[in-house]
Structures are given as structure tokens and as C-alpha cells.
Amino acid sequence: MSKLSTSKQLSLGAFVALGVIIAIGVVYYLGTKRQWFGDNISTYTYFNNVSGLQAGNNIRFSGINVGTVERIRLASDSTVLVEMIVSREASGFIKEDSRASIESDGLMGNKVVSISAGSPDAPHIEDGDTLRSRSPASLDQVIASFKTTSDNANELTKNLRDISEKIQNSEGLLGKLLTDSAMAGRFETTLESFRETSLNTERISVRVSGMARDMQYGDGLIPRLLNDSVMAENLSHTMDSLSYASRNLASTSRKLEEFADRLNNEEGAVNLLLTDSIFANDLEKTLRNVKDGTTDLDELVQTVNESWLLNLFNGDKSKEEDKKNKK
Amino acid sequence: MNRAIEVRDLSKSFGEKHILNRISLHVQEGETLVVLGRSGVGKSVLIKCMIRLLEPDNGEVNILNEDVLKIPDGRDLDKFRRKVGFLFQSGALYDSMTVRENLRFPLERQPDAPEEEEIVRRVEDVLEGVGLSDTQEKMPAELSGGMKKRIALARSLIMQPEVMFYDEPTTGLDPITSTEISELIREMKERYETTSLIITHDMECARITADRIVMMKEGRIAVEGTYNELKENDDPWIQAFFSDSKKEL
Amino acid sequence: MYMRTDALPASVKDFLVGLAGITQFAGKFFRNFWRPPFEIREVFYHAYSLGQKSLLLVGITGLIIGMVMTIQMRPTMEQFGATSWLPAMVSISIIREIGPVLTALICAGKIGSTIGAELGSMKVTEQIDAMTVSGTNPFNYLVTTRVLAVTIMVPLLTIYADIIALFGSYAAMNLEGSVSFKLFIDQSLGSLLFSDMVPALIKSFFFGFAIALVSCHQGFTADRGTSGVGKAANTAVVISSLFVFVIDLLAVQITQLIIS
User: Fold this and answer.
1) For the residues of C10-41, what is the DSSP string, one character each?
2) ipTM of the complex
3) Which 8-state DSSP code applies to residue B113?
4) Which domain holds residue A44?
5) Are the beta carbons of B105 and A1 separated by less than 8 Å?
């Protein structure tokens, strides 16, 4: 029979105890990291794309870890449900209008769910609440700037129309108007900014359609989430008309520029031109085209705003902003 | 008198080699039977079959009114084996344990193990019986061959078996020690009144211990008789044993 | 229908017979596990002599592996500009794979040969038979205790090896540049998940079980003669190392299935 001496028994006991303590210590360490042993609440959020987020990734609020991702599963063909475990302590500061977004922790880092601070007077979240998410791509921002641009175009057109009306209706005034160098200068500036606007519009529309292409075929920021075929068709259709409109706008602005050039450079021809009713009609038509173009554009943007894109990215806010802009 | 051991038509083969060929023998209660035979004749196989260290192919073994070959493996077999002692050729002392631990080992592990005092008393008792009272704390490696055999004998006897098997008890020992061991076996047999079956090729051992001798040849019993009867037999094959054992000395 | 066993090559036959023997042995272990007498003291003894006495060897190996891995990985991580990920990389590979497998292999070598030789020599000198005929179940005393002790000790040794390897990694990290201990612990343990640690610990139980069982089986079935002892020790090491890898292969798949 092999009996152990007391000292050997002691060392064996110490060995086993220490090993178990280390194991328990590490388990506990990982446990607190995963918030298994603390007072926690569950909260949910939906993303269209989680960009490789995994169960166990951290949840950050104001840059500190407040919890971990518990579970990720597909909720529908284009939405992913993310279940998050957040410490109760931190949940007191997360408001119902806080937004969850997915960020990268460093260049090669893990993904983290970042929760933005909500408005101070909103109630804080409770166990089982669902937070709204923010899309990784800021497409709604692009749309917003697009809207501003077309609003500008609209205003310009109105200015132009005013001018042309003045040209048509008060001939006496026109001579004075056209010989007034300050007035002419203003006209020129107007035209210049109009040209810029339309270029801007075109650029944005190209960008948007590029994005749409990415969405459909590519592996960009918003890849699979938009792989709904109906939506994609809708999108490409919209983009087509968008670029058509902006091309229209660009050609109109070229014509206007031509007109302004003539006004400026061929002094002798000005009167002739202005009395030529055909030309005046021409001008009128051009201006109407411009107006139509910008109205189209405006409508388009409105449609885009109200339809899928905004629903997709929870863009209620930008819609409200649009309304404010309109007013 | 009752037959303590009865073997009938026992056969055992290893592959094509028939070691035991329908062997039959019996041992009366309290009797010492010596099985003589040359090396490789299957003596060891015979007794190993009798206590189920080897499973025989055929036949019947009856020890203490139990049909040994039909005892189910496990607790029942262990229970049967505790009634039987077995002295191995090498002694087979547990070399990681002291002498005392060796002796206590089987005693302590019985389901109805005796009291501690009883164990201590029995250890002292058997050690005294084999004349090695002062070796309790020794390790087997510190003992001589003869002492190992004695301790091994003591270890078998401590269980107070009703039947003892001895597998070549004197092999590997010098003649004087051999004689001592043989005499010890006889002494112990008389003291504990055990039925014994001794396997050996040592005629001297047989002379000292045997009540009756059987000789094995080609897997079966060839001759049977007392020491003196065999000695007076003219058969050269039998006489070879007597001269062989002398040569070996 | 009988299979013509003599049609099989001897090596295949040996392999299958050995496998069957080990399987039976495992079955016998679980049957005997519940059967008295319980040799608790013997379990402690083997836990000490087989398990704790391997700590030094396991610890040294762990320390070296932790250091070497860190030093080897550093240039690659530097290329990616991700040196801050070194602790996480090292700790994940140690905890998940290298710690358990390396410990198991060392134990297969040390414990396997010890058991194989011990039981082999007991078998050869008829000590196991002596226990059998004295009506004491040698399986309980010799095998169950060892299997139990090693099954418990290998995971413990793995934990120690992991910790020591992490310490080695920390030391190596401070050869170039300096990392505070707290930061190292945060980064190395912080990147671990339960799914890294728990399967690794569970599989090391199986490693221990397999090593002890295979080695005991080899010892119990040792051939007569002194060469039988050597052969038993040798095959104990070889087969238990092989078992470690097979179990590892299974474990990684099972872990993947469960986690995903």
C-alpha cells in the first residue's frame, strides 16, 4: 500500500486546491467579463448587417464596456436580431432614443456595438427593450445634401424666371436692366451658381447610383442587406431617373450660360436678341425646362426620402428635417 | 473421506498445441497431492485452470463442492478464491509494499474484513509461523529468495485457506533452502489442516511434502502412487525424475 | 457467418484486438468504479506520484512554449502592425490547443511509460495474478485508481501549464518593449471566451482518461519476460499519444458543432 507522507499530502492538497482556484478564478474573470454573474438586463436591436459581429463582443456606451453581445440571429431575410446583455447600472444612462451602431475596435479589432447617448430627458431603457440602430453607411446624410442642392436649384430657377419675366414684360426696364452692370453681374453670379448646383446634383446622383450598384452586386458597407430584388429594381429605376434629371439640368444650365455669354459679350446684339420674340420664347422655354427639371428632381428626392431608403435606415429624423426645410 | 478437489477430463490448448489432454485427478480433504512432471508438460497450466487464471477449454473442476468453471466472474469468483491459497513460483510479492502491507493486503480487502486488532494479530501469527517476525517493515527487494517464498507462503496462509495450491515452491532456491521451504509447507499444512496440491519437478520436495504423487506426461496423468511406491517402480521414465532431481541439486 | 480472421494481416489483427481490449477495459473501468473497496488513498498516491511529480516537466515545457510562441509570432504581428494583439493571440492558442495537447503528450510520455512499466512488471512477476487469486480485485486497486488519478490530474496540470505558458509569454513580451502585467492579463485573458476555455478543459479530462486507460491496458496485457515490460511501456506511450491526437481531432469538431 502506498501511503503518502504528511508533507506530500500537504503539497498534493495545495497543488489541487491551487489548480482549482486558478480555474475558478479565470472562469469568474471571464464570467464577469461576460456579465454572467452581475445584475444585468437584456436589450435588443435590429441591424441590416452586423459586419461580422459575434456573440461575446463588447457593448460600449460612451466608450466604456457595459456589456456583451449574447446572441445574434437572423430575424428576417434582411434584418439581424442582436441580443445584448447590459449591466443594470449602465442601463440607467441608456435612453430609449439611444441608437446602437456597429463599430470596429481598432484597425484589426473586434466589432463592438456602440450605443450613443440619447436625449437627457428621455426615459432610460428597461429589460427587454429594443433600441433603434443606426446604419453603418450614412446614406441618409447623402440624401439630405441632395435635397438641399435641389432646393437651391429650385430657388435659382425662380430667380431666373423672375428675370426673364422682367425681360419680357417691361421692355423699358429691360434695357436699363441689361445696361445696369451690377444687375448683369448678379445675373452672371446666379448662372454660375446654378451651374455649380447642377454639377453638384450630377455628382451626387452618380455617387448614389454607384452605391446602388454596390448594394446590388458589390461587397460594400451595405452588402447583403439590400439583396431584396424588388427593392434593388426600385432603386435602380430611381437612380436612372435621377441621373436623367440631373443631365437635363446640366444641359439647361449650359444653354443658360450660352445665353448669358451672348448678353455679356455681344453688346450690339443684345437689343436685337431681346426684341426677337422667337428667341424670347426660346428663353422662356429653356427656363421652363429648368423649372421642370428641378421640380422633377425635387419630387424624386421626396420620393426617395419617403420610401424604402429612409425606412431602411430609420431616417425618421431626416424626414422631419426635410419638412422643416420645406417650411 | 470427502474429495476436496476433483478434476475431470480437463483440456486446454494454446492454438494447435494441446497442453492438457482430458486430465483427471482428485485430492482428498486434508491430503497433500504432488503433481510431478517435466517443465512444459502443463503442470502450471493445470493449476491455473483450476483457479480460473486460465480458462480451460473443456472439463470439470470441483473444489470444496463448488463447480469452479461455472462460477460467474466477479464477486462470486472472488469469494471462492478467498477460500483458496496460491503460492506462485516467483512468490509474487507486491514490491511496492512492505512485508506487512503485503500480508495485510488481501485481508483488508475482504468484504467482511476482520477488526484491526485481529489483522495485526494474524500478521504477527503467520510471520512467526514462517519464522520471519522481524521483517514486517522490510521491502520485498531487501529479502532473499527463500525469505520471499516464506513471506509469500505467509501471505497465502493468512487468509486461512481451505485449499492451497503451490506452483513450483522450491524452484530457484538452493537445496538447503528448498528443503526448509518443503518442510515449512508440511508444517503449515499440519498446522492449518489445509488440503494441498503441489506442482513441482523437485523429487526432494515431493518426498517431504507428499501424501500421494501423480506424474504427468503429455497432458495427462501417467502414474500415481506414494513416494516409496514410485521409487521402487522400474520404469526408466519414472526413475529419470529421481536421478534428474539429484542432478539438479 | 464467420469472418476468416486468418485472412487479415497480423498487424491489422493486432490493432483490432488491441482496440477491442481497450474498449473492454474502459467498460470494466466503469463497472468497477462503483464497486467497493474504494482505494481512495491509492488515488491520492497516484495523483501525487503520477500527477504532481509531472508538474516540473509540464511547467518547464509550458514556460518555454509560451516564450517561444511569443518571440516567433512577434515579427509577423509587427508586419501587420498588430503587436498589441500578441497577448490575445498567444493566450488563445495556448488555452485552446497548445496547453492541453502539450500537457497531454508530456503526460503520455511520463505517466504512460510509468504506468506501462509498473503494471507490466507486476503482470510479468505474477503480482497481478496473485491479487486475482487472493480474491482482491486487482483492477480496482491498480487500474481504477490510476485512471481516476490521472483523469483528475491532467486537467489540473493543463491549467498550470497554461498559466505558466502565459507567464512565459509575458516574460518574452518584456524582452522587447514593455507591457505591464495588468495590461497583459487584461489583454490575454480578456480576449478569451468560455468557448475557448471550457472545451479545452473538458478535452484534457479525456486526454487523462485515455492516457491512463491505454497505459494500464498495455501493462495488464504485457507479455511474459522482461522484454514484455519494456514493450508495454513503449506501446503505452505510443498508443496514448496517438489517442491524444485522435481525441483532439474529435474534440475540435465537436466543439465547432456545439459552438456554432
Assistant:
1) HHHHHHHHHHHHHHHHHHHHHHHHTSSPP-HH
2) 0.85
3) P
4) 40-133
5) yes
